[in-house]
Amino acid sequence: MSDGHLFNNILLGGRGGTNPGQLRVHSGGIAWKKQGGGKVVDLGKGDIAGVTWMKVSRGYQLGVRIKDGLSYKFTGFREQDVGNLTSFIQKTIGITLEEKQLSVSGHNWGEVDINGNMLTFMVGSKQAFEVSLADVAQTQLQGKTDVYLEFHVDDTTGGNEKDSLMDLSFYIPNSNTQFVGDETRP
Amino acid sequence: GDGRGHMKASWELTAYKNVNDIPQAKELVIQVDQKHEAILLPIYGSMVPFHISTVKSVNSNQDNRTCTIRIIFNVPGAPFAPAPDPNSLRNQTAIHLKEITFRSKDPRHSSEVVQLIKTLRRQVASRESEKAERAT
Questions:
Q1: Interface pTM (ipTM) of the complex?
Q2: Which CATH entry fits the domain spanning A5-98: 2.30.29.30, 2.40.30.10, 3.30.930.10, 2.130.10.10?
Q3: Do B19 and A57 touch (CB under 8 A)?
């Protein structure tokens, strides 16, 4: 198939870091393959639930959420790609891209949103970070206020980065009513 | 820490105004931005900024060839927390990121970045407490 748009050097982000590869957006969906072979992500148009754009420190990031709740992050687009892809995806896949904003204020307080398998930490109306609950090995309630998430340590799927996320915890004050009555999840 | 070392967030606690101000990273690793008094953490393929005054402590641990870097953030109601200031009062019902741990493959980078975070934290803390003393 020759239709669509091809992008080289697009990073797929995950718990362990990022991997470079080639991304193709075509009329049947979105496909990414790792540079040098190996991992392939093939998302059919019928599986895609939502697509977002976000400006990050390294260009633009395309977020693709699929219907089973997983989400993929592709980074490394240029500004001019945004317009082209937005109209192409709308026309062929029938999804309107939403724009998300990265929180740059540096605050460590906000809200937690859980959507499918993705946990998003929001500061104000902006996204600070997003992690996949599918990568969580275990969660623990520590004391009455702390929720601890430990991520799988897996060297085979991890990126080539030096620093990789192991665990994190959230402090949820008693006065926070967002997750009342559900102590097994944040 | 003792209460004195904690920074009163009386000035506007904002690391960056715009995403374009974040330094371009060649590598996705923990970084310290002295100019903006911020640390940048690689979380799921993105560099996420945190203002240095949100950091309570940082330490590293070395075990064979793997290092861990653990960053603990300020949260309300913690022991030795300072008297509530307008900023923290506003945030008392918010969810806070309390702690985050990274595994690092590079012991030199790991000890360097921990040192840089500690130094920056100390500098900003002492500047802010001097400012507070002058104001009284």
A1: 0.87
A2: 2.30.29.30
A3: yes
